[in-house]
Specification:
Oligomer: homotetramer
Order of helices and strands of chain A: EHEEEEHEHEHEHEHEEHEHEEH
Structural class of chain A: alpha/beta
Largest interface: A-B, 52 and 52 residues
Strand content of chain A: 15-25%
Number of strands of chain A: 14
Shape of chain A: globular
């Protein structure tokens, strides 16, 4: 079978390595190059495969039909342009082209790759803006409420989320050392100012949530991977079985799981899924739904969803090469 | 120096062992007995000390001036009564005498031992109802808002909290095995029905929060000890420096720390403190404060606060034997 | 493609669940039944698949061409017999038929399924005795030394090994609770009396090591899965590049990795491989090789090797369905 | 009570911070200064105390009666000299003055501060060379065998040891990130070339082990603190109760615990003790003792022992300020 050549720029970080590992297992793709400036010329084993890194400037961009850019925020846009100039299509894992972030001066259009919600806009795109990890967990969870108009007018959507350390990328920072993270738990970006907030707000507004604010407090977990978001949403009224809304909305979606019991990280780790549960809050006057949404930040929150988008771009089966 | 004899019923659980370890270091107390039905006759090392367990029914209750009951909820009330019958005063670590839990048929009065808020009611008490771990973290955090009337009328106080596994007690349950907890994170009692909710609601109402509901979602962390509560409270308006409210309210309190930066578990583990920060939420129309409150569930959330209450009961220095 | 029906007895333990997950991904096998007495009638999700457990006595043994028995040691032998009576071939993950363990009164012959060393004896077998996890890591590491006669006469082979908690099986024991294992490390079966010792001694003797004792001290690691064995072997003399011995001996073996650098658990977890390194000890008068051998105790140490053996039994590709 | 002023150079690393925390609790010492070049001018909270760091060059050395140098190996010697020049006595936590390491060109004499074995040489010393963490765990364990001549002539003492990550110091290295250490276990310095080997060899030779080599393989554990050493020693013959040797040798020592059961890390963490067990190996022709020795690498392995040595230097109670 012919395999489509793809390349990864920024392949030594956690998301980039995950992507290389997935590509190696993919039945329809092959890795044309993997770049990593800090490890140029070195070989690295990723699961059962091995890659040899080239410098980003030496990457043979023209040899790839799809280029994945897993470069730092801000540094990605240039390389996205370089790859586009060779005719390659790009799935960008940085925030550079995402809604709420993309500078207005940059008039490049890039659909937002939250695949289940934006699937139709992807096949013809030159660039897909792959969503952030927290926004993926949150937006998939609240989209049905937004589009169906269930949320109480003017209500604030409260998101408390916790991520494993790979969510911070492969950053050699003292606060990410084992002895500083183990047996600890901490909030960060407290005050509703995390950079993912703008992305969530922009997409939520597109989906009908202009009237509702989002209050987002992320936390750092002593685990390697996984995000759990606990989302409380004041609603107009309770219905008998609120889960029906999500079941209908995501019917037939292979990567969305609507669960009777609250999901935990181990339900989703190493899988390209969003798994979520919904409960009605007792003992409160304001009807409020409690959604628990879990993803693997490196899979559905990064590399997995990027591959899902590439599958759509290339007209392959959307599930190809992805562990459900 | 004369040391006051005290006893511990239920001394093989996590809280009971912590209490025995603290008593061993306390300059004014000595351990007269430690009971544990499942380990009767056995010796156990607790930190630098050793205890020999007796069966609870064999505990020489009359030899203790203060008896700590760290027995399961429901089982404690009887032994509290037995200890009282010998003239001992009791600090009960179970929920049996706590507000919102204590059956109305039982007319025994027991002040609630949230020491900083209820200090005056303790010295003359026969029984002190030692607070639950989550309620300690939450009520110390929100009490100033309640008593000062800052909270928006009718607003819901949203509490998302996470606890280390010792919060579940020394329970040999499959879901608490290492291989099930490590690398995982999960919510439980989702739906606002955790048994600590009634305790928080009852005390919050006493402090002026009759008009405000509490929405509480606890989580299980892959750490041994510590609770972090992330509390969002809609307020009437923003003031310049909201921390001033807590600084004034808890002025001179040795076990309450008001921090400029959000506390993390490692700031509080093995210490008898509540450490908290307060931030104003940006990017929301409804002014909202975000409080992060951290405690060690076995210290300020159980054994430490129990000893603090015993110090008050006995007229000792409130800080005696407690690691600040 | 026709898929061969297989069954798993004891499918709710860690090894049994791993096996069901592997079978679900296997291109040539399908799961005919999965038994678990304690969860009979329940559905369980295992990775991306789901199984419904039956009671072991209700398992339709005759519908499987291969039955995997992942039952407790001692309990397996009876069910191995029952499965054989229906004509099924059996891969037994218990120790009941292993060398050094198998009671002489029981004259049933079962080749030892350390596939790379005993491959020829498997195809015609009715029962394969799947090796223990520690013996797999150790015997693959020392076999070349034994068969080539490199070990110093009369020398003791010193094995210090450490295993993740799933090595103890799905045992609801207090010493395996998260709060007891996290941040801890401990030796067990100290004194050279672990039940895997007899298995290692018996096979090592078959391979030529009658003259050499094994001193084995296992430890419990605060990780979920993985075994690392540190093996020191006094040798007759040093050769220039000792790794050549292992490279020659395991040439072409897809599941044996000879590494330049000492392997760590993360090199092997979720993979069906033994990865090992060999170093010459400096600063000692007695020439001694230091072998570091790493496996995933649930994969090459249990379920993966069982599937590898089933592949051989059935004449399928030995690598089918196995993550290298 | 008069408190003796002491200073800490290199007080922002793990050992230096531990030391500051211990000094704050010590009844007879007070912290005159704490230096940390990378955090000069900053305040840091250490447990219940706070320190303000000065640059090492600004440390008022003359104000301290004892200076603890917790500086990097190689950098310590100069500052030890500077401190001595002011008349202060020094406990050096680096390896610069330890046996087997100390360059012969440097003729400064410094007794080795393995307190229980070398106590008499300390009171008059200007400099005490505080032992390394691994050597402390190992030498305390094997000293009785060496001094009593129990070891088989020419036999190799085999040490496999594992340490928590703080043993590597506060090093911001990629291999010490949480995501790289959690769920992993690995050997390092494989080949008997760890820098602690020379220290162990030199002291063991002084104690009578000139005829016995040491084979030492350290490992990195996914825990914050603690060392467990598994030591096998071929002996001339078995005696009935080998533990008697250690019980006699360490009689009355408050910081040495001879245990019936193998110690685990949680027995010793946050305590200034060596806890060890001894077992006779079964199933081997060569009589061999298996010693398990556990310490907290930051306490008895660094800061605690340094304080113990300072107590001896100053004529204070050796146990003052130390958690047994």
């Amino acid at each position: 079978m012919h395999k489509v050549p793809v390349g990864v720029l920024g392949a030594s970080g956690y998301a980039g390595r995950e992507l290389c590992g997935l590509i190696a297992q993919h039945p329809g793709l092959r890795l044309a190059f993997a770049s990593a400036n800090d490890q140029r010329g070195q070989r690295a084993r990723i699961g059962a495969t091995e890659v040899t890194y080239v410098a980003t400037e030496d990457a043979p961009l023209s040899k790839a039909e799809v280029v994945f850019t897993a470069l730092p925020h801000g540094a990605a846009a240039t390389w996205v342009g370089n790859a586009r100039a060779t005719g390659a299509r790009v799935v960008d894992l940085s925030s550079d082209f995402r809604p709420g972030v993309h500078a207005s001066a940059n008039d490049t259009q890039a659909p937002y790759g939250l695949t289940e919600l934006m699937r139709d806009s992807i096949p013809g795109a030159g660039i897909v803006a792959n969503p952030g990890c927290y926004p993926t967990a949150v937006l998939i969870a609240i989209a049905p409420l937004l589009t169906e108009g269930w949320i109480a007018p003017g209500a604030t959507i409260n998101v408390t989320a916790a991520s494993g350390v790979t969510g911070a990328g492969y950053s050699v920072r003292p606060d990410l050392l084992f002895a500083e993270v183990a047996e600890d738990f901490r909030a960060y970006s407290v005050g509703n100012e995390h950079r993912h907030l703008a992305e969530m707000r922009a997409v939520a507004a597109q989906l009908g949530g202009q009237d509702n604010d989002i209050l987002f407090t992320p936390h750092l977990l002593p685990v390697a991977r996984g995000i759990l978001a606990t989302i409380t949403v004041p609603v107009k009224e309770y219905v008998d079985d609120p889960l029906t809304l999500w079941r209908d909305c995501y019917k037939g979606e292979p990567f969305i799981e609507i669960a009777d019991q609250p999901p935990s990280l181990r339900d989703v780790v190493r899988r390209n899924v969003v798994r979520l549960s919904v409960a009605k809050a007792a003992n409160v006057r304001q009807p409020t739904l409690i959604i628990i949404s879990a993803i693997d930040n490196l899979m559905k929150g990064a590399a997995g969803q990027a591959l899902q988008n590439a599958n759509v771009l290339l007209g392959l089966s959307e599930q190809a090469g992805l562990p459900a």
